[in-house]
């Protein structure tokens, strides 16, 4: 039984010349150029590269990092933390983020904005406002940014970590204040409605690190309240140790109940020592040095391979985003990336490259039949068919026609 | 500051004779005859007494038990467990329960039916049905019983223990099967809608033993999905030990966020040893003897006094129902009642009698003014004013007119 059957489709191509005549008996190469599945990373470094607003040697370093990233991945998350996007009310960093988003899109990378609403890193000036003003400011932010980025960023983590949002108590913030008043479900409802209104075709994601029944009941409540959640986002920061197959399968089973697509939006599996288990808020773990080591790099490579495989084998999962591509600048200083601080690739980089570009890819050579057709089964996504000087692009998806004509010449 | 101000109201009565003339300077007695607040117990014994379908000495015993109950309480919960109400499809125990409900109402006791929907003690014959058939059968049950009892039982625990309902795994049952498919919120929505349709004026309660964030998020989701929950029901089976003031206040605070009335629907504080803390499902605790002791009866009396006081002082709480009135036949054999197995009252019986009938009651004597009026503040509820041979009834509530005329003679 093919565990990846749900990732594939079969189609028949009929190769025609410019006069519409079938090209028979021709050896053609058929190659997946971009997965339908979204394999991504946090790609905040694209901001430096797109805007070229850092010193020259840093820029070269960042460009090399992005080159290594582009060699494997087809999806990226860009930062829209309100505190950093609009630290001064009325002066959003739209241009910078637009440049980064466009830079990625030109390179066939799907871009997601993260997040529109969160109690952490939210606009500090909300604290001066009444709750009603906070609500209006947050909705206005969504309206402005979802509208401005429409066509460039069409996937959004609309609201992040709602389970804890109204009871978050590390520091006062405008979003927790508002969520206490509105309640969780109404908060989600208002924010999703506004995002949906501004970009009806967008993919809107509800995201959380909480994978308990709390999150299940929240999703259930939101769906029954008419919230148009497109995707369930699940964080998997595993600084304290790999969840393991059993827990991962259990989480997948529980969140499959809704029949909605699932994205693993923020994965971390480090190549360093494990964070102690008694730490509850990962942000509390502050150490000077958290090195990557050869032994733990091997562990990371094994865990990444198993983790990615289990997820790719699950029919509802449509994306895996590793939170960090590189150890350089990683949250908490953790060795959380696929490449080291000096851009050298770890074994885990080679693993994901092999899985995404080889094992889970389609690259075949075959000959067209007398009637110019060739039938094949391949991983879903964007393709190129080529022979001689000729290259033509086509798509393979679940709803691809059983037969498609490709006009060449 | 009067911590019970929210339980009281002030009104002016103008006492008139049959000719409409004020009765001045008359000494009158004003007495609360029935609390607005619902102080209740599970009163399943009323079934025996109303139907007189048990042996004579058992009947006498039950009648004495109910006499002791009626001397203190003004609310009762009657059992509508589907497995017992309709063990054979099409033959519900309507007459028996109707007799019990009427017997209680004739004695000014407000009656609640418990529960319409639950995964435990549900109709066993559901297991032969498809999920769609289970849904229809459950809705038909609600329609039949809520309609039949309208005017007699107008308060219902519509659905019980929804947090665990879809993942309950002790034994297969039709309600868990259905809830797995519909999801929690939709399950609640369907059941409440049917109950509401059949008795628009009913008080409909959502009930649970789960007081965690799970239950908060569930309520939030249901309210946002448009479910017309009138009251939040909270079970407090404290076989393993009194929650204590801190936990009780914390639970009250969290469930106050909705602004809905709260009923403590199933309280247990025993006068015996504590159930071990490692027991998760209370039903797993099976012992031969769980005696009431003088030492623990004193403990029970203190805990009951504090528990009832904290709840009566909280403005959103509108009812406390002690699950068992008597140790006789108590769930798990626990000494959970106010009276012992031989109907003798424990210290806790004297405590609740004192609180409900004396400390939290109004019984005054005063003289009418020259204009026949008398103004007083009292606990809300039904009253009798009497003087000489004359008795007249009136109500005192938050929305009572500032002045009411009472025609006597």
TrEMBL record, chains A, B:
Record EC number: 3.2.1.8
Origin: domain of life: Bacteria
Pfam family, one: Glyco_hydro_10
A single MF term (Gene Ontology): endo-1,4-beta-xylanase activity
Record keywords, A-Z: Carbohydrate metabolism, Glycosidase, Hydrolase, Polysaccharide degradation, Signal, Xylan degradation
Residue ranges annotated for the GH10 domain, each copy included: 51-355
Keyword Signal: yes
InterPro entries: GH, GH10, GH10_dom
GO biological processes: xylan catabolic process
Catalyzed chemical reaction(s): Endohydrolysis of (1->4)-beta-D-xylosidic linkages in xylans
Similarity comment: family membership: Belongs to the glycosyl hydrolase 10 (cellulase F) family.
Name of the protein in its database record: Beta-xylanase
Organism: Insulibacter thermoxylanivorax
Biological classification of the source: Bacteria, Bacillati, Bacillota, Bacilli, Bacillales
